[in-house]
Structure formats: structure tokens, C-alpha cells
Amino acid sequence: MKMLRGIFGMLLGMLLILAVMFGNLFLQENRKTETISKVQEAKYHLQILVQNTDEYFWTYFKDGARDAAVEMNAYAEFVPIAQKSGEAIKDAVEKGIYSGVDGIALKPADALGTKEIAKEAKAKKIPLLTYENDSFNIADVPSVGSNSYTIGSMAGKMGADAIGSGKKAVIIMNEAGEEGDISYRNLSMQGIAEAFSSKGNIEIEEVYTLKQNMFEAEKVTYSIIAQHKDINLIICLDEKSTPGVAQVLVDNNLVGDIKLVGYGSMPLTLDYVERGVIYGTVCPNAYEIGYYTVKQLAQALNGVQISDYKSTQLYTIDASNVAEYDDRMPKKEGGE
């Protein structure tokens, strides 16, 4: 009797497993059918390459892109790729071209590779657009996004307001491995340096570089506090790393002694701003970038003359306005 119960139990378990498997297959097929339906109903099929990271930027970027796609009767397909991988971007674009997409948008990883992609897309008469890219000079390829110099200028002004004149600062930036990255760093540093000069002659002691390793921000911050005992300010221009830098200041009881200006609007970053750990943060309007990326592409396909560069807004969050951003982030400014 016990053996029969055991066999019955095993059979029941197997039936449940099969039911779950068939249920998943059914859901996947439904999703596939729904996607095909959306592509067929839409006027244009746009391929939007996005970085495969957990940065909050991409959540808002996709929201904006989807809204513009609905408005322009387009289907926006998001293709995740490895961060700063020129080869992965090239492979994804080639697949898009040969699968018959109508337009492509990407965030470049290097200048040479992007020029090759642009040449191939042009040969196939497929519009190409870049976003968050004022670092690469690519002829005849329009771009949407934030201005690197302005990012640096806003961060520098906020930092100067936090510490006053005659003080010392350290800057944390992403690794500059490619031509465009170096250009971005130069533009951002120019903005910071000019803000420091106009606000009270603040000295930049050192610029630290972040590699794409786990806990890299924490390691760099520990090096900073060990080697620069008299600094008053850290500016971190990396969204993912900003909370990590803040946590090191908390762990070492340096909140208030060292002011921190960060980048981006991750929930943890905003929480640190509210608690006074981070003085303030500079934020790109990711929703607006996603929105105009899709809208500009669709307009180009409609035969509308679009601008070579569509600048999107930046804004700052500090203790005075962080409560306004806890539950919502700004969308696009005005209409077009």
C-alpha cells in the first residue's frame, strides 16, 4: 500500500512538472505571437541597443522609448548588449540589418567601430542614430543626449557650493580606454575645472579611474581616504558607483568631513541624499533621452529633417528637492 502511494505521488509530481513546462511554453508562445503582432501592426520596427546593466538610467530610458513608439506607431525592440563592447554592438547591428529592421539606435563604444556600423547601415538605407554620445565625431549620424561639459560644470558648481573656496577635491570617473571615453573625460573635466575656478579656486588633487570590476568604487574610495587626508570633496561621475562611494564614507565616519557629489538617480543614491550622506547628484533625463531617440528615428523614416544633435535636459538633486523625486522622475520638457 505504501509503495502504491509512493508511485502515485511520483506520478502526480511528474504531471505537475509537465503542466508547469507546458504552461511556460504556452506563455512564451503567446508572448512571441504578441510580439510578432506588434511588429506587423506597427509602421516601423526600430532596434534599440541598450547596455545590459542594472543602472536605473535604463528603466527610465525604456519608458520614454516605449511612449514615443506608441506615439509614432513604431515597435521598439530593446536588444541588451555587454557594456562598452564594440564587438557585441557590431554583431547586434548586423543581425538587425539582416533581419530587416527599419531603424537602429545605439550608445557607441568606440569611434572606429561606430563609423563602420554607420557605413554599413547607410549602404542598406537604414537610419542610424546614437544617444548619450557627444564624445565621438561621426559624420551624418544624428545624436540625442546629455552634454558632457554641462555634466561636469553642474557637478563642479554643486561641489563648490558644498565646500566653499580654497579647498581640495578628488574626481572619480570611468576608465578611458577609447577615443570617445577620453573625449568625454576631457569635456567633463573642463566643466568641473571651470566651475571650480569661477566658484573659488578649488584644487583638483587627483583624478581616479574606475574599471568595470565589482567593488571597484569601494577600493578606489578607500585609496582616496588613505592617500588624501586633507580632501574636502569627492565628485563621482558614475551612476552605479555613487552609492558605493557613499557607503565607504559612512563606514569610516567621514560623512560631513568629505562632501560627495554623485551622478544618477538610483533609489539608493536618492536615499543617501535624503540622509545627508551625499550632498547632491547630477542626473540626465533618461526618459527624455529614450523618448527622443525613438521619436527622432521615426521622424527620419517619415522623411522629416531632424537635427544633428538633440540636447536633453540635466538636473540636480540635493536635500532641498530630493523629496520631489522619491516617487517620480521628470519626463520630457515641453513638446515637439
UniProtKB/TrEMBL annotation:
Belongs to the bacterial solute-binding protein 2 family. It is found in: Cell envelope. This is Monosaccharide ABC transporter substrate-binding protein, CUT2 family. One of its GO terms (cellular component) is cell envelope. Residues 49-303 form the Periplasmic binding protein domain. One of its GO terms (molecular function) is carbohydrate binding. Its main location: other. Keywords: Signal. SUPFAM superfamilies: Periplasmic binding protein-like I (SSF53822). It comes from Anaerocolumna xylanovorans DSM 12503. Transmembrane segments: none annotated.
